[in-house]
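**User:** My hope is that you can spare some time for a protein that puzzles me. As I understand it, each token names a local backbone shape. I would be glad if you read both lines and explained how they fit together. The protein I mean follows directly.
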Amino acid sequence: MLVSDIVEYGARKHPDRIALRFEDETVSYGELRDRSRRLANALLDVAAPGDRVAILSTNCTEYFDCYYGVPMAGMALTILNYRLHAEQIVALVEHSGATVLVVEKEFAELVDGIRDRIPDVRTVVVIGGSGAATSWDSFVGGASAELPSVLPTADDIAWMVYTSGTTGMPKGVMLSHRNLVSGITSSALQWALPEGTVFLFCFPLCHVGGYVTLLNHLMGSTVGILRAYDNATFLRLVEEWKVTQTGLAPTMINFLLQDPALDDHDLGTLEAIGYGSSAIPAPVLREGLERLGCDFYQGMGMTELAGNVLHFDQEAHRRAANGETGLLAAAGKPMRLANIRVVDDELADVPVGQIGEMIVRCDQVMAGYWRDPEATAAAFTDGWFHTGDLVRQDDEGFVYIVDRKKDLIISGGENVASLTVEQALYRHPGVAEAAAIGVKDDTWGEIVCAVVVLRDGATATAEDIVATCREQLGGFQVPRRVEFVETLPKNVTGKILKRDLRDRFSPAPPDRPQPLRLTPPPPHVATCGDQSGPRVPPSLTRTTEQP
């Protein structure tokens, strides 16, 4: 099965059903198939099978034409994060060797400014553009809606998604048709997507999480998309479109629960919320279950896995809500098509309950990193992909993410899981968001640093934060440094970029092994919010910098 087969099947089964909703626009399954075919045929006039076609755009219906139409032409859709700096875009386009660049009108001027630096790009197509540039409408308007004569193979690259670069230069993850279809099929076997599902997709489509929309199309759902997330639009569309399911990052759920307008909206059609991207603090999940009145499920995956490999289903969440609160820390069980092991540094399986690295081998694991054989070789051992996640698995099969290997804090020879510290930080009533990082220290090697965003109107000192942590953590886990910030840096899915925080707050002051005593944060005005993550209402917080 090919990625493009999803829209072909949908058009045959229910051609008049709405496949997409975006603002005032609707696209049926039959229309989406024809649009995808036209794009594929238009591309074959200017490029060859095997070429890379890059896209730089916010969410729009044309993105789906590219999702399906580029792989239909035997080419690799190269997905670029539109929030990157121009220099970063140049580097990724150059690295990909893309010959075609699809760009939304608002980024056309940026592309004009870098055009002479991306010589491999022979064709630029502007969504919503006109004039001298090749507009999307003129590019696809005269193309045939017949099925292209090209027939890709399952092992051809369908999408190339660049990683977020949280540990360095972004890598181009090559996802074949086989990888994506396997990831979609595995999720289809796990998720409950009944007939008539209306799914609201709230993330940027320039992320592997967009595979969820293909999953919904495979199941015949109507998929609504937002240009960018904000609470007000989300709440309005759930009511107007009668949304039955949605997906949110834990940070987005947290902001939604803090919104005073939440109780003014009827969310009665909402049956389930899926969350992922990062672990959710147990207090946030408990409040979400209580106030939103719907089921929750969780998926855990990564770009290199073409989707999720762990699933924490609705029944398990209900068990947790009925008293088995320890389950709230689980990321889920291995999905049906995911072969997962938990191993030590010698790749020996660890006993149940002990901590090891999760490794994966299945059809949805990436084909490799583009033009990076060394990184590809380092990511695999005997066919097993190293996720870099430290986990433990209980006797029921639930997998608990202890930490990312790179986020593990080693202080005085003791391992400190940043997620454990963050769970404690969220128990302080004034904390809106928090992250725990390790910063270098001459005495301890690393010390635990808490980076905290306060709720609107809340005040707290470093001593308050530390006192809350002391009630729940061992002495070696308690933060020795507390930083108050306005926002936390995030990628497009709301995942906190801890590398950025480590860069900002390292090294730690050498003369303070004890918890830092900071004065109460001074008043601060509202900000425009963090532009590197989901567009959420700004936190009216206070900043206290290290003296």
